[in-house]
Amino acid sequence: MISYLFLQYYWWMIISLLAGLLIFLMFVQGGQSMIFSLPVNNSQKTMIINAMGRKWEFTFTTLVTFGGAFFASFPLFYATSFGGAYWLWMAILFSFTIQAIAYEYRSKPANVLGQKTFDIFLLINGTLGPFLIGTAVATFFTGSQFSLDQMNHVRWQTPWHGLEALLNGRNLALGLAVLFLARSNGLLYIINSIDDNDLCRRAVNKLMVNSVAFLAFFLLFVITLLISDAYAVNGKTGQIVIEKFKYLHNFIMMPYALIIFLAGVCAVLYGIGVTIFRRDKKGIWFTGPGTILVVLALFLVAGLNNTSFYPSSFDPGSSLTIKNASSSFFTLKTMMFVSFIIPFVAGYIWYAWKAINNKKITNEEMKEDGHVY
Amino acid sequence: MIENVDMSLVDWSRAQFALTAIYHWIFVPLTLGLSFLVAMMETVYVRTGREEWKRMTRFWMTLFGINFAIGVATGIILEFEFGTNWSNYSWFVGDIFGAPLAIEGILAFFLESTFVAVMFFGWNKVSKKFHLASSWLVAIGANLSALWILVANAWMQNPVGMVFNPDTARNEMVDFWAVLFNPVAVDKFLHTIFSGFLLASVFVMGVSAWFLLKKREEWMAKRSILIASIFGLFSSLMVALTGDSSAKTLAVVQPVKFAAFEAHYTGGRNAGLTVIGLLKDSDRNIGEKKEKDFVFSIKIPNMLSIMTGGDKDVYVPGIRELVTGGNNEQNILSVEKKMENGRIALQVLNDYKNAKKANNKEQIESVRNIFRDKSFIDNYFRYFGYAFLRSPEDAIPNVPIAFYSFHLMVMLGFFFIAVCAISIFLLLRGTLQKSRWFLWIVLLSIPLAYIASESGWILAEMGRQPWIIQDLMPVSQAVSHLSVGSVMTTFILFAVLFTALLIAEVSIMIRQIKIGPKHQEE
């Protein structure tokens, strides 16, 4: 017999997995953020843009599905966060809107805005997208200033409507960690998919800087996370109380989350390490899954073990938990049946991905298909 | 509980959503139809192996790609605006509305985005058959995504398959199949996708007509026109059929909208169908709103009664009866009475919330029982949204907008049936290329197809005002608590961005058409 609680856990797991997948796929944004700094000539720039351009739809679709799945499974989060942190989400959406057309239009004749405009669009999305999404996710741990009335209508308590998240050092640390992780993954993807020795050499050099920056900000965030107080839910009364070292407790109480987290960190470090020290080109195959595992673990400690996944620092009683923010039993159950199709979807994505990536990108390869960005 | 809502916030939020939806809908119908036309052309290529068909497929595929990207860009904003600008709504119905959006992502968007990459980059990487399958899967994915978003939209027009939970203050889904097979959803999905097929057909015919007028690419243009004319004729007939079915459903579930798009103020039997007309303000009022009279009109006697109920004696209520209540025989509840019942439902909900706050278990149980009572749901809670109306005439949408958008859409629909039929006739006679007057008509029909398509959505969304969810929630109660300045700013930002992107898109599209298919191989 499936319980309501099981479904709430199940859907939090799906959301966490989608979040992990999204952060991994933001290697596209990471690559975009370096289109002016990494290549030394136009040919290299075109190869980078085409390598990323063949995958941008996956990231975009994952973001849309992440939003849709959150809406379906935890609608109170959707209503509270999107309706409250308006400017933060609008900035994220704006950056993704300009990305969607940039690839297709940048090199087309009669492009009235000019190629440079669309390249700048890619740069903006590549930099702001991961940074702002990382910052928004950090508020899952640091809290936001909102209250809910008895009809569950949100009132944001600052006029900045989400932009205040940028004034919190821990939020910025995660935002920058996600940005540098996306850049590192972008470099690893370039090394793996483009056949150009000079570009790959430059990418490895750049990877050293970006991976160090990622590790610095990531460690800063994780250390502050483990020593910080957080909002716990009293399992019996549903009351929200402050608990010291809550996330550290969560890792201890949920050893599987700790194992996933450590496995993910090791995989990320291994992928970066073999690329830098052994010049291996397959680092992305380790950092990619590693990224998914790390994000999955962070989401698990954010929402499970009686933790508020979207705490309100203004009115702790309004904080969202997987119990009070979820859809009804019927909807979660119906959606669970729909989710059974996900392995099939993942299967055909894998098949199509392999089919497209079976040849490394070179100037000649791009001309073969005639569809060059 | 009835909040004083800043109407300028509601207006700006509506304006922003309308702006996004209108821009989004410029691009989506072409994607829906052109994806199938491209798949059909590629099928011929794979079956015949003739390179001309491949060039033709790739030409239309290039135009598809240019249009597809901007449709995706505007679509993401639309999805998230439900949360950013309509957060009260998102909670009130998220339990039902969110599910189709999530299914859309999982089932349709991934299908579309995965295989669109194969479509564009797989010509030399996968087998011909795999590539063809990818093209068909993109078409299916695009139309599947339309299915789920239209299921969600239809639920807003005719909420079914749910119960209200006073504990969470929201509606909760209890019957997924009722939501999926909502009669409005079935009509809306079929009507919308066929209208998309029609628009794409007119687009392909128009561009091909331009080639014929310029005496360029004649081989490709004639075959493109043939495929598009047949597809367009079939689609236009289906649009008419599903439109008729849709109107019949609306007459039952959204009678005010139905009466508004016919500017049908006074109900009666033997109601005539207005074919064309020009409206002016009348001397008569409903509350503070002026009724409309016709300056002139052409009507088909009895036709509205016949089309609505299959008989000329069928009574078709007018806006006046629907607002003020008809006589006993007509058995129409006035909006005033609905407002009264809605306020009672709202009061019961408030009582429940207060009892919970006071932890008064006896009262909690007693009020909870009221929400389980079918007669309370059918007679009071059903009109919950009316509690928030300020006067009965608030229930009347903008009649001229509904009337003109409907009639424009219908007239253009019949015009396209004629265009497609004449095109097939001239092709069969072998005189299409000589009929330059007709080629010009076909070319100039492209913007008309967009006007018809947008008119349909303007009717659907403006015609249902003041409701965001029919009878349950007016737009004024659905809006996020934001400052007017914030929404005004994002409106301006999006207006500038979308307009700039539209200009870029049209400019690139025109240039690609001028370049033509030969260039693809050069």
Describe the structure.
The complex is a heterodimer of chains A (373) and B (522). Chain A has 373 residues and is mainly alpha-helical. In chain A, 69% of the residues lie in helices and 4% in strands. Chain A has helices at 4-25, 27-32, 42-53, 56-73, 75-84, 86-105, 115-142, 169-193, 197-227, 246-253, 255-278, 284-303, 329-339, 342-356, 363-369; strands at residues 146-148, 154-156, 230-233, 240-243. In chain A, a hairpin with a 6-residue loop joins strand 3 and strand 4. The longest helix of chain A is centred in the middle third of the chain and has 31 residues, at 197-227. The model of chain A has no long low-confidence stretch (mean pLDDT 93). Chain B has a domain at 335-393. In chain B, strands 1-2 form a two-stranded antiparallel sheet. In chain B, strand 5 (467-469) and strand 6 form a beta hairpin. The chains are: A mainly alpha (373), B mainly alpha (522). At the A-B interface, helix 4, helix 5, helix 6, strand 2 and helix 13 of A face helix 2, helix 3, strand 2 and helix 17 of B.
